[in-house]
Amino acid sequence: MKIAVLCGGVGGGRFLRGVRAHVRDAYPDGSGGSTASITAIVNTSDDIWLTGLRIAPDLDSIMYTLAGENDEVRGWGRIGESERVSAELREYGVGWPWFTLGDLDLGTHITRSHYLRSGLTLAEATDRITARWDLGVRLLPATNDEVEMHVVVEGGTSMHFQEWWTRHRAVLPVRSFVQQNVASASPAPGVLDALASADVILLAPSNPVVSIGTVLSIPGVRESVAAASAPVVGVSPIIGGSVVCGMADACLTAIGVETSASAVAAHYGARASGGLLNAWLVGEEDAALAPAISAGGIRASVVPLWMRDVPTSAALAAAALAAAR
Ligand code: GDP
Ligand code: CA
Questions:
Q1: Which CATH number does 2-50+183-324 carry?
Q2: Less Cβ crowding at N or C end of the chain, within 10 Å?
Q3: Quick check: CB of 9 below 6 Å from ligand 1?
């Protein structure tokens, strides 16, 4: 059983932890592992060079979550890390004072930057970095190319997505999202194979615009999802008209999509009419939307969508695989 998952950081990490737990139960290999393989195709448009280091927030959030090393209280970085190095950088006036990176997390960024400067690709660096832990999921960056997302705000100023999101809390009105170099980017080795050979393709409950949207915009990815022989099942990141956490509603509003489970489904589109989705999971809060989504050609299932812990995330993953059948 081959499962390919398109994803961003926090929603992606929580969902993958559930997929891994479910397949270890449903496809046991007898030694605590699984006969199913999970490949995560991860957004890299939040990545940035900062203080000489390459930061890849979504790859790292997922890695820490699957390793059980993520700090759930702060919502980013590693459990039990201090911020002494970031405090020193602030004293020197280097980097972004509003963007604090913990010391253990900085160890990851130094390692990644070392590999990249030695000539490895991001995918090769990611393989080496993730080998440290038994993640049970292969993490593939969507692309090895630098395709950072910039945001052009009202007035015409352009800034890195990270500055708009973290410093300005996504409140500056958006004129456009511009993904740098995307037209000349190519999928990382393994990405198109993972899609073509998958038995099921899942769209994680991640930000539809700046996580899943940017993965799909790498030339060849959207086409490969659409052409895959596997069914494509999406999980709504919107529950009862709200984004659960973060500010993804600001991204949806900026591209003219309503913050609702049905509008996001329509944005991805029905496979039968040239879109991506065979099936779409919506929350019990959105049960009333299901008939219209199904009438539009996307089979809607109503299931609990809250990933509170591993069991609830695993139940959601089981529902996504069931919806594929
Ligand atoms: P980011 O890269 O860290 O912004 O994370 P993602 O793009 O993977 O996902 C962020 C989105 O995950 C949020 O906007 C939420 O809509 C969604 N999300 C987070 N927790 C849950 C949950 O428990 N259930 C569902 N359905 N969605 C969630
Ligand atoms: Ca992200």
A1: 3.40.50.10680
A2: C
A3: yes
